[in-house]
Amino acid sequence: MEPTVLHGYRDSASLRQSFNRLAGVVFGLDFEPWYQNGFWGDAYDPYSLVVEGQVVSNVSVNQIDCLLAGERRRYIQLGTVMTAERFRGRGFARRAMEAALADCGPCDGIFLYANDSVLDFYPKFGFHPAEEYRFRGAVSGAREASVRPVPMDAPADWRRFLEAKRQRRSLSRLQLDTDGLLLFYLTGFMRDAVFYLPEADAYAIAELNGHALTLYDVFSGKEPDLAEICRAFGPQVRQVELAFPPRDTRGLERFLYREEDTTLFLLGEPLSREFGAIGSFPQLAHA
User: Fold this and answer.
1) Domain range for 82
2) DSSP state at residue 224
3) Rounded to the nearest 10 degrees, how much is the dihedral formed by the CA atoms of 61, 67, 73, 74?
4) Mean pLDDT of 54-71
């Protein structure tokens, strides 16, 4: 049977569940809690090839609205690119990609992350590879930890966090307006990664692994001292890596960031022109 291209089916239980089954097999992902919690909004739209009611191939369009140096940008990330094993080699991924790109509409650029087995696929659509750079730094001046874990277990917790976040500003060069995507992480596998820092009256999304602290974002009503933010996580912290492009890079080392089996691709202006100044996309903007 000839496949049908469908999108905008988020509220169709049968198609959504079929999409989830394929995402589970290919990526180990489950979007159902995100949907049931009310955070799967219009910004994330799978373009799927459907055969006999089943999603067999997909490219998802994820709208990333943000501010860059005070100017509005709308980027599109293409993600959840997948094809059921028995339908591979039949051009289904190409058809899903063409459908997704045709509907992207006006935007400031499109990006995606590809695994190394398909690096020759995306240039056929005009994408070009790009290198990402992150920042890291040493942490000294140990003191007792003062951060407080923020519960993210129930709707009341999520509402309180979003209200507090919206009263503050991210330390990122890209000010994301993607709360729905953020809550995909914070109501799922990163629900234990939210902290309140009393001295700075700030919220941090972070993970601590031994002596290494990864900051995914920091929301503050003022410009906090990054070193103080890091020291608030306790005396074991010796190094910090920022998984977002910081506005203030003083005291930090810029380094080429490579994720295993992953290459960033870009398409369109002004993103391709401006990406050198951006450096990398926030980890919490990945879909």
Assistant:
1) 4-131+258-285
2) -
3) 20
4) 96
Instruction: Locate the DSSP E strands across 139-252.
Output: 148-149, 169-170, 174-176, 194-197, 202-209, 212-220, 239-242
Burial of 218 (0-12, 13-18, 19+ CB in 10 A): buried
Residue 127 has pLDDT above 80, yes or no: yes
**Counting beta carbons within 10 angstroms of the beta carbon of residue 278, is it exposed (0 to 12), middle (13 to 18) or buried (19 or more)?**
buried
Write the CA distances from 3 to 6, 9, 91, integer angstroms: 9, 16, 11
Q: How many domains does the chain have?
A: 2
Residues 96 and 113 in one domain: yes
The per-residue pLDDT for range 157-193, each reduced to its tens digit, is 999 999 999 999 999 999 999 999 999 999 999 999 9
Cα distance between residue 56 and residue 92, in whole Å? 8
In percent, the amount of the chain with pLDDT more than 90 equals 93
**Alpha helical stretches, state H, the chain:** 13-27, 32-36, 92-102, 155-166, 179-186, 226-231, 271-278
* Torsion 68-69-70-72 (CA) sign: negative
CA angle 133, 136, 209 (to 5 degrees): 115
pLDDT over 90 (residue 287): no
C-alpha triplet 133, 138, 142: angle, nearest 5°: 145
- Give the CATH number of the domain where residue 245 resides: 3.40.630
Q: Tell me phi and psi for residue 274, to 5 degrees.
A: -90, -10
- pLDDT bucket at 221, cuts 50 / 70 / 90: very high
CA 227/CA 233 separation, integer angstroms: 10
Cα dihedral 11, 16, 20, 21 sign: positive
Other CB atoms closer than 10 Å to residue 42's CB: what's the count? 9
pLDDT in tens, 73-96: 999 999 999 999 999 999 999 999
